[in-house]
Amino acid sequence: MTTLEEDARAVLPAAVFDYYRDGFGAQVTRDEATAAWREWRFVPRLFRDVSRVSTEVELFGARLAAPVLAGPTALHTLAHPEGEAATVRGVEAAGSLLVLSARAGRPLAEVPLRRPWWFQSYVLRDREITERQVRAAVAAGASAIVLTADAPYVHPRPVPQAGALSPATRPAGSEQDPALNSAAIAWLAGISGKPVLVKGVLGARDAAACVDAGAAGVIVSNHGGRQLDRVIATPRALGPVAAAVAGRVPVLVDGGIQDGGDVLTALALGATAVLIGRPVLWALAAGGADGVRDCLDLLRTDLARAMAQTGLPTIGDIDADVVTRG
Predict the structure, then answer these.
(1) Given 3-state DSSP classes, what are the helix, strand and coil percentages for the chain, each rounded to the nearest 5?
(2) Which H or E run contains 239?
(3) Collapsed DSSP state (helix, strand, coil) of residue 253
């Protein structure tokens, strides 16, 4: 358990901490997420000018301080009274980008979004609900849509409410559509007018199919181990997915990323950027908006340090030769 996670555990009700931390089943996927990044070793380059190191990147027109985004996670109000309103202040102060969950704890109108941000969406059985959510997000300034495609069914999971556990109930038709297919990519792009990234991609064949169907990006993700246990760890899936995409669109990745070395490894394996989920929640719980800012700033400075030590002055200098399997 990281120090940040321990800090969050000290202030959160046990039911909330477990709700955020737990995966599904025996927790195999959740528990091996971080360890899988540590299977790789760096191969530093010598005699490179690293007197100045830049971690800046541009992604879908947004200039970011580092290729580290705050990934979509639900119900930030369980971690902090201000919920996503505090999260976005911290994210923006760090020069990063928030992917706002469709199941946020705060209404969209109460989240002070100023810098570029993305909206995470499911496609629901009632497509009108999805369309209303997406159109509202675009009207509020969302610059991309992230389609979460790896959850055809949601496992019943009690949600903490006022210190107790309650069943999660939603209006009829608001369940994920288990008949979802790749045509939803073009549909979402059509109603939003924005690039659509597909989240939950773990196989090379699916990655290529998503791009062929119009995806503007793919996100290698196993949903934090919350939907299926013993699913492949994202560092092991990333290389084949990046190879299948072959540079046609950006490839992002999440899952178990804890420090700048993990970020550097992800970029070397073919990612354009990474997303972090649980660490943002821990930071929010322990320190509010400032905690989220500090979490992202630390990842940025740690990435810069790792780049300097491996002879990489810019993100563009990172390639597959920088890492080898340990």
Answers:
(1) 40, 15, 40
(2) helix 234-245
(3) strand
pLDDT at 169: 57
- Spatial separation of the C-alpha atoms in residues 193 and 215, rounded to whole Å: 13
Instruction: For residues 71 and 272, give the distance between their C-alpha atoms in angstroms, rounded to a whole number.
Output: 14
For the chain, give the mean pLDDT: 93
The answer to whether residues 296 and 68 touch, using CB atoms and an 8 Å cutoff, is yes
pLDDT of the residue at 286: 96
- Cβ contacts of 132 within 8 Å, gap of 6 or more: none
In terms of Cβ atoms closer than 10 Å to its own Cβ (0-12, 13-18, 19+), residue 203 is middle
Q: Quick check: 153 and 122 in contact, CB under 8 A?
A: no
pLDDT of residue 77 exceeding 70: yes
Q: Assess whether pLDDT exceeds 60 at residue 163.
A: no
Of these residues, 76, 80, 155, 223, which one is catalytic? Answer: 223
Give 298's pLDDT tier (boundaries 50, 70, 90).
very high
What pLDDT band is residue 170 in, cutting at 50, 70 and 90? Answer: low
Delineate the domains of the chain, giving CATH numbers in brackets: 3-311 (3.20.20.70)
155 is catalytic: no
* DSSP classification of residue 175: S
Q: Which token pair is 143?
A: 């610059």
- H/E element holding 85? helix 84-93
Q: What is the mean pLDDT of residues 124-152?
A: 95
Q: CA–CA separation, 233 vs 304, rounded Å?
A: 25
Q: Which two tokens stand for residue 155?
A: 């496992």
Angle at 113 between CA 110 and CA 119, to 5 degrees: 95
